[in-house]
């Protein structure tokens, strides 16, 4: 889950800037970048140069991370006093895409979700269709080694926001990763929520 939290922190940090940070970008359409097939070069060709890159160790594997970030005090946020920002995070293992995740506090594409519904997910019983019914379309996906199961696939839901002044900034971050086996049954649930609304 580290990479999802790292991406969320980046949104909060970008929101600290007084005017604009990063370069605005368009989230790739579904199917344009494919987990397990697309490469870092494919992502760069579609998205341009990343705002930030880094390294991550997950499940004992060395991963590369690329973030695209944008914040603007002139945009319309999902909630009052929140600095609108968005991040697209990509993770690569052996130059192959293993995670893509979109996070936004802009009103038009907010990724906020209801964390109170997480206990409704039951490992070994709930299905991918039930998770979508609870939370809507996922804002990201991941495969091994970003998640534990080598043959599993995960839906990702993430949200981050920052509000207040530079000297009195309040942050909220939450991230949900729900893994499924080949039959679409839940095998793992990871949820983290921190900060003030």
UniProtKB/TrEMBL annotation:
Domain of life according to the entry: Bacteria
This protein's UniProt keywords: Signal
Signal peptide: 1-21
Protein name (record): Lipoprotein
Native organism: Candidatus Propionivibrio aalborgensis
């Amino acid at each position: 889950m580290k990479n999802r939290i790292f991406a969320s922190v980046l949104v909060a940090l970008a929101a600290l800037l007084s005017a604009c940070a990063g370069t605005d970008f368009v989230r790739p359409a579904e199917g344009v970048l494919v987990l397990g097939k697309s490469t870092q070069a494919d992502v760069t060709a579609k998205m341009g140069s990343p705002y930030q890159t880094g390294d991550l160790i997950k499940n004992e594997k060395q991963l590369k991370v690329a973030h695209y970030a944008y914040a603007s005090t002139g945009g319309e946020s999902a909630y009052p006093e929140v600095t609108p920002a968005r991040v697209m995070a990509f993770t690569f293992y052996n130059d192959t895409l293993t995670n893509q995740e979109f996070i936004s506090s802009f009103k038009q594409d907010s990724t906020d979700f209801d964390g109170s519904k997480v206990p409704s997910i039951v490992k070994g019983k709930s299905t991918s269709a039930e998770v979508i019914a609870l939370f809507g379309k996922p804002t990201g996906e991941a495969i091994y080694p970003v998640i534990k199961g080598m043959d599993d696939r995960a839906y990702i839901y993430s949200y981050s926001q920052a509000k207040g002044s530079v000297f009195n900034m309040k942050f909220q971050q939450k991230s949900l990763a729900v893994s499924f086996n080949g039959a679409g049954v839940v095998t793992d649930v990871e949820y983290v929520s921190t900060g003030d609304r």
